[in-house]
Design brief:
The complex is a heterodimer of chains A (553) and B (422). Chain A has 553 residues and is α/β, with parallel strands linked by helices. Chain A has one domain: TIM Barrel, CATH 3.20.20. Chain A is 33% helix and 22% strand. Chain A contains 20 helices and 26 strands. In chain A, strands 6, 9, 10, 11, 12, 13, 16, 20, 25 and 26 form a 10-stranded parallel β-sheet that branches. In chain A, strands 1, 2, 3, 4, 5, 21, 22, 23 and 24 form a 9-stranded mixed β-sheet that branches. The two termini of chain A are 44 Å apart. Chain B is an alpha/beta fold and 422 residues long. Chain B has 3 domains: 3-49, no CATH class; 59-114 and 292-421, 3-Layer(aba) Sandwich (Rossmann fold); 119-289, Dimethylsulfoxide Reductase, domain 2 (3-Layer(aba) Sandwich). Helices cover 32% and strands 23% of the residues of chain B. Chain B contains 13 helices and 23 strands. In chain B, the strands form 5 sheets. Chain B has a 9-stranded mixed β-sheet. In chain B, strands 12-11-10-15-16 form a 5-stranded parallel β-sheet, with helices on both faces. In chain B, a hairpin with a 2-residue loop joins strand 13 and strand 14. In chain B, helix 4 (115-127) packs across helix 10. The longest helix of chain B is centred in the middle third of the chain and has 15 residues, at 263-277. Classes of the chains: A alpha/beta (553), B alpha/beta (422). The interface between A and B is large, with 66 and 67 residues. Strand 18 of chain A pairs parallel with strand 9 (129-133) of chain B. One zinc ion (ZN) is lined by residues 184, 235, 263-264, 311 of chain A.
């Protein structure tokens, strides 16, 4: 079947196409060159419409143990946002901790076709994949969390060579079926198990004697040398702590040019100035990002309202648990692997700190020059549910709207931000970079995030609107792998996406010490830990896509 | 992966039955399909694996029929029902997935066989939360373990061998202190040679008060009483101090044994006490449960609907009510008019007596005092087909493997077939 998408205004930054009228052809789920003389089976007249690749969320907590704790914990949040059962759709719940079905539907309804779960605990990876296996339409993938696991910390303590660490990292990617490596509060989740309540970049883990700087350096090197496309994904030290801008700047300089991705950087960009001893470090962070091409960031924008924070960072989640709203929270120490903390939270526009957090996030978006290196996230659901992306895009694209929103916030917060004076408005082309082309490149998806021949036909078509929030909330059409799945913002067909992974080469000799370690300390056999392809693919819906790594070791 | 090391002989077999996910069993499958746990079995895993195969023939009102006929009859009964109940939910992940799909389609109510026990913990999670850990953290880190209430050693026979009387990464076995609060340990839980069990004994009935006093003592509040539930307050004060002095204390309980009204309040006291200890040192709870994969239903219901169990789909959306949607109440008050009972792990887990058409999708070998309208024998996950099931700490899902081929369908296959025939 040959589909022609005729006459849309195309934004395809991967090919430098900035709002040009083009025809696109789709065959067998792929974008193709117009086959000479071939008969078009189905034509969509897209004149006057805006055409982009399907959007990619490169950091969103959509599957895995802590997300499920958040769901089970928050019946009162679900009740306000039910998803009805229809002939086509399964029932479920939305908002802060949506059910898997609803997650897929609502992302697709906004024109997103791919999403990555950024905090896959290796021991919980099986669950993450099973949950993501129940998310329809979207392609998905995960970043495996290392850095507070005792195996790595023991290696670092014992001075293991980088090569052995690389093998362990590669083995983890295989065993967990992930596409990247994330580190959360490097060493800090483990340190909390030893009752350390803070761990700055150069502070020693009291049992292992290892510092977060060492963990970061070693893991960033491993990821780089293995040729994993996605740089080490870093949730840094001191999340949410006033003054953490200094730590973040030191993290950037300390990585010495290695590629790193600093996630939800908004939560790591706080100074200590002013009457409330809480201020914006956004300008300094943006300056550092602009000056260091090895660094990419996603923002983790906060937006006002009820949500839930779910993080591997038990140390910081425990410290913040007293702010829980409603008043309940969970912290878990997990299997010599990591941990998790789930704390419901309500961001308030009349709260000075929350209001300034909102402004800090936007300052970062607007002060980082290169849209290829800053990504649109709310760290769903930590800053806000992903369904607020259209609103966030409007804040970036519409200065009048932005300043009007700003004028409603806590007055002291307004005085502490330069936001009102920032003139920049994102263009559609820049939005397409940060949510498509840039995100695909960052994660290492060569056939997604663009509209060139050979790309997967994940395509979103919008109807232009002066209110871009409305435009981005309800696309006219969404195609997933060439199939029409959304029309006028509603699901018309349910498909199943693939799971993106990488499988870098490694020396399997690492399995010997690992098997001994599993037998001696863990509660499962190494061989029962490994997730094999059939676990994801055996139901006939799921599949695994392996992306190439260019080893640099 | 379970490894076939000789014809019919499997090593590294994971158990969905025991709640603690042992995966070191050696299991023999005879030519007749009989299963024997040859190495490292215990009363719980043996009882799970070694159930006789039984008759594989589906039945309608006790009469043998083809699978197709049984599926057709089940669909017919469900089509005629105005509010069916899909209960039991004792199955692997795919089994629960299929049951939820059926329930969503039918607008049914969903409940799990072990809901009463599960809710004693879940209600606490939903009201105030907790700090917990997983089995490997106990094994490697716990220098003080408090076994709270009874039912632990008998219910989880290998818990001590695997996680307590073994050297961990950060604590040696002989450095661990184990205190029993409530009941003295039965034989299986006796400490390793050379140590007498430390016991602060009280009846179950007094446990809520004992925990409340312990919590007050941990918080540093003055307690006027001299004794509570027969335990001198001075000894509880010592326990409070021990928790604060430990590097990593773990309080273990098995909610299934806390059979008194509103036991969730005692669980809550315990969990708040643990939070309190964490002001100065580290401490975690470990809820023991999850036998016959019972956490699996909570997990899958959680991610597919947002709610853990007792969900009503009749208005087209999932609606959670831990009291109104209880199997016993729905059957007792005649609110439901058909019952689907899914129990793939244990042939002994028969449906509750009901005067409405009952469709049992149960482990092959299940027997009934009165035959249900439809009985479809299915394979057991982890013996007859691969699958996934959770262990007690929720984090770890076990991959289960197929050990024999005797021609039994899985629970998921049967339920999906019923849904297709609606
Ligand atoms: Zn994070
Ligand atoms: Zn995150």
């Amino acid at each position: 079947m040959l589909i022609k998408l005729k006459g849309g205004t195309v934004y395809d930054p991967a090919h430098g196409i900035d709002g040009q009228v083009r025809d696109l052809y789709v065959q067998d789920g792929r974008i193709v060159e117009p086959p000479p003389g071939a008969r078009v089976d189905r034509e969509y007249d897209l004149s006057g419409k805006i055409v982009m690749a399907g959007a990619i969320d490169m950091h969103t907590h959509i599957g895995g143990g802590k997300v499920n704790i958040a769901r089970v914990m928050l019946p009162e949040d679900h009740r306000a946002d039910p998803q009805y059962h229809t002939e086509l759709l399964r029932s479920g719940c939305g908002h802060a901790a949506p059910s898997t079905w609803t997650t897929g539907y609502r992302y697709a309804e906004m024109g997103f076709t791919t999403a990555f779960e950024p905090a896959v605990l290796p021991i919980n990876a099986r669950q993450a994949h099973m949950e993501m296996g129940d998310i329809p339409i979207l392609d998905k993938g995960g970043y495996a969390m290392l850095g507070s696991d005792d195996f790595l910390l023991r290696m670092l303590r014992d001075g293991a060579d980088q090569k052995a660490v690389n093998d362990y990292v590669a083995w983890t990617l295989h065993a967990t079926q992930c596409i990247g490596i994330k580190v959360v509060n490097p060493g800090g989740i483990s340190a909390f198990k030893f009752n350390q309540r803070a761990l700055d970049l150069d502070e020693r883990h009291e049992y292992y004697g290892v510092t977060p700087r060492q963990v970061l350096k070693t893991l960033a090197t491993a990821v780089h040398e293995l040729g994993v496309p996605h740089p080490l994904h870093v949730h840094g030290c001191n999340l949410g702590v006033p003054g953490n801008v200094e730590t973040t700047l030191k993290t950037i300089s300390g990585i010495e040019g290695l590629p790193i991705h600093l996630t939800h950087i908004q939560f790591h960009s706080y100074g200590t100035e002013g009457d409330f001893k809480f201020s914006s470090g956004a300008a300094r962070i943006a300056e550092a990002v602009n000056a260091n091409p090895n660094v990419t960031v996603d923002v983790g924008q906060i937006l006002f309202g009820q949500t839930v924070t779910a993080s591997g960072d038990t140390m910081k989640q425990h410290a913040n648990a007293s702010h829980a709203h409603p008043k309940k929270w969970v912290c878990m120490d997990i299997e010599c692997d990591a941990g998790c903390g789930v704390v419901p939270f309500k961001y308030r526009d009349q709260n000075f700190v929350n209001a300034l957090q909102w402004a800090i996030g936007l300052e970062i978006f607007l002060l980082v020059d290169d849209p290829w290196r800053v990504f649109l996230t709310t760290d769903h659901p930590n800053g806000a549910p992903f369904t607020s992306y259209p609103h966030l895009i409007r804040l970036l694209m519409d200065r009048t709207f932005r300043n009007e929103q700003l004028s409603r916030l806590h007055p002291e917060a307004q005085k502490m931000t330069t936001l009102a004076s920032i003139e920049r408005e994102y263009s559609l082309y820049e939005i397409a970079i940060m949510t498509r082309a840039g995100a695909a490149r960052l994660v290492g998806l060569q056939d997604r995030g663009h509209l060139g021949p050979g790309a997967a036909a994940d395509i979103t078509v919008y109807t232009p609107d002066d209110d871009v929030e409305r435009m981005f909330a309800k696309p006219a059409y969404v195609f997933k792998d060439g199939e029409l799945v959304v029309k006028d913002g509603e699901i018309v067909h349910v498909t199943w996406g693939t799971t993106h992974t990488v499988k870098p080469d490694y020396d399997s000799a690492i399995e010997k010490p690992l098997a001994d370690y599993f037998d001696r300390y863990l509660t499962m056999k190494l061989d029962n830990f490994i997730i094999r392809d059939e676990e994801i693919a055996e139901d006939g819906r799921g599949s695994i896509t392996v992306h190439p790594c260019g080893g640099r070791g | 992966m379970a490894k076939l090391i000789a014809p019919g002989l499997w090593r590294q077999v994971p158990s969905p039955f025991c709640g603690i996910g042992v995966d070191d069993l050696t299991v023999r499958v005879g030519d007749d399909g009989a299963v024997t746990v040859e190495e490292r079995g215990d009363p719980v895993t043996r009882a799970g694996f070694e159930q006789p195969l039984g008759d594989k023939t589906p039945r309608i009102d006790g009469r043998p029929v083809s699978l197709e006929a049984a599926v057709g009859r089940a669909a017919e009964l469900l089509r005629a029902a105005s509010l069916p109940l899909v209960a039991g939910l004792a199955a692997d992940v795919n089994g629960v997935r299929a049951a939820l799909s059926l329930a969503d389609r039918l607008g049914a109510v969903v409940d799990a066989a072990d809901s009463e026990a599960l809710l004693r913990n879940l209600l606490v999670l939903q009201d105030s939360g907790w700090m917990t850990c997983t089995l490997a953290e106990v094994k490697n880190r716990a220098d003080l373990i408090v076994m709270v209430g009874g039912g632990l050693e008998r219910g989880f026979p290998r818990f001590f061998e695997r996680h307590v009387w073994v050297d961990g990464m950060f604590v040696r076995a002989d450095e661990r202190r184990v205190i029993h609060l409530g009941q003295a340990p039965s034989a299986a839980g006796r400490p390793s040679p050379g140590k007498a069990p430390e016991v602060l004994a009280c009846d179950d009935a007094h446990l809520p008060q004992v925990l409340a006093v312990l919590r007050a003592l941990v918080k540093g509040e003055a307690v006027a009483a001299e004794a509570v539930g027969g335990i001198p307050v001075a000894r509880l004060a010592e326990l409070a101090e021990s928790l604060k002095a430990a590097r990593y204390g773990v309080l273990v309980w098995a909610a299934a044994s806390w059979n008194w009204p509103h036991a969730e309040l005692a669980v809550q006291t315990l969990c708040e006490l643990i939070k309190e200890v964490n002001r100065t040192t580290r401490c975690s709870g470990l809820p023991l449960g999850g036998k016959n994969g019972s956490q699996t239903a909570v997990q899958v219901c959680g991610w597919q609907s947002g709610y853990p169990l007792r969900i009503r789909f009749s208005r087209g959306i999932p609606e959670y009510d831990p009291y109104l949607n209880a199997t016993e109440r729905l059957l007792g008050e005649g609110e439901v008019d058909a019952l689907v009972w899914l129990a793939a792990f244990d042939g002994g887990q028969t449906p509750p007596p009901a005067e409405i058409p009952t469709i049992v999708v149960g482990r092959c070998g299940m027997t009934f005092s009165r035959p249900p309208a439809v009985f479809i024998p299915v394979g057991c996950p982890g013996i007859d087909h691969p699958g996934h099931a959770y262990r007690t700490d929720n984090v770890v899902a076990l991959r289960l493997y197929q050990l024999r081929s005797v021609g039994l369908p899985s629970g998921a296959e049967v339920i999906r077939a019923i849904e297709r025939r609606l």
